[in-house]
């Protein structure tokens, strides 16, 4: 059976009165000896020993403080210092250039993968800015007529694990820039189709950016088979529709998005479509310059 044991906390050791008395007596003795002149020889010997050490330490300090002045006054050292600075600046510039080339190579590899999977000839371009026209969804890309861009050409981009998908159509072209009307703009209308089992359902995709950058698939027959999860692609029939903008250059089977909901209204069916790529987040895109079906 265990018994409770009481433990006493150790008290800190008390200072001995004898030690305090001895220290006071020693201090008084040294003070009396100094007043009697007995510590003079000891002080002299100490100064004789310490003075050389202090002198050497002072010399080291003077030498170190003189180094910056020598660097500034010596033309050769100054030139060498400037050359080293220039070399460092050049190395930094090369590192930045290497990073830029690495980034560009990644984009080119992505373009090659897309061209191998689809019958398209692509031209990559940076998205420069969203145009200030608040009534329409337009972006400016860094490619124009000098690079073969023409009005009506499809512009695609890729986001995450989604397939490369349509984000808009070239509306106006300058020598080195082009304005792209985003497919989420309300005035954007493109012929589209859905492959549902063994059927092909055609309709028109219209922008609905006010509703969370969604799209609306309409002009679909009431009895057409549509279901949530179906993939919507371009039909390549926009030139046959009575639309102001020329879209004859948009090839068929360019991915657009996924159907989220389906509704029946009157004599037609409509569907809400979520784009594969949000055009407002795109910073780099490709213009489809040509569509070569023979590559399939």
UniProtKB/TrEMBL annotation:
<feature type="domain" description="Rod shape-determining protein MreC beta-barrel core">
    <location>
        <begin position="127"/>
        <end position="288"/>
    </location>
</feature>
<keyword id="KW-0133">Cell shape</keyword>
<protein>
    <recommendedName>
        <fullName>Cell shape-determining protein MreC</fullName>
    </recommendedName>
</protein>
<dbReference type="InterPro" id="IPR042175">
    <property type="entry name" value="Cell/Rod_MreC_2"/>
</dbReference>
<comment type="similarity">
    <text>Belongs to the MreC family.</text>
</comment>
<keyword id="KW-0175">Coiled coil</keyword>
<dbReference type="InterPro" id="IPR055342">
    <property type="entry name" value="MreC_beta-barrel_core"/>
</dbReference>
<dbReference type="InterPro" id="IPR007221">
    <property type="entry name" value="MreC"/>
</dbReference>
<dbReference type="Pfam" id="PF04085">
    <property type="entry name" value="MreC"/>
</dbReference>
<comment type="function">
    <text>Involved in formation and maintenance of cell shape.</text>
</comment>
<dbReference type="GO" id="GO:0008360">
    <property type="term" value="P:regulation of cell shape"/>
</dbReference>
<dbReference type="InterPro" id="IPR042177">
    <property type="entry name" value="Cell/Rod_1"/>
</dbReference>
<feature type="coiled-coil region">
    <location>
        <begin position="74"/>
        <end position="101"/>
    </location>
</feature>
<dbReference type="GO" id="GO:0005886">
    <property type="term" value="C:plasma membrane"/>
</dbReference>
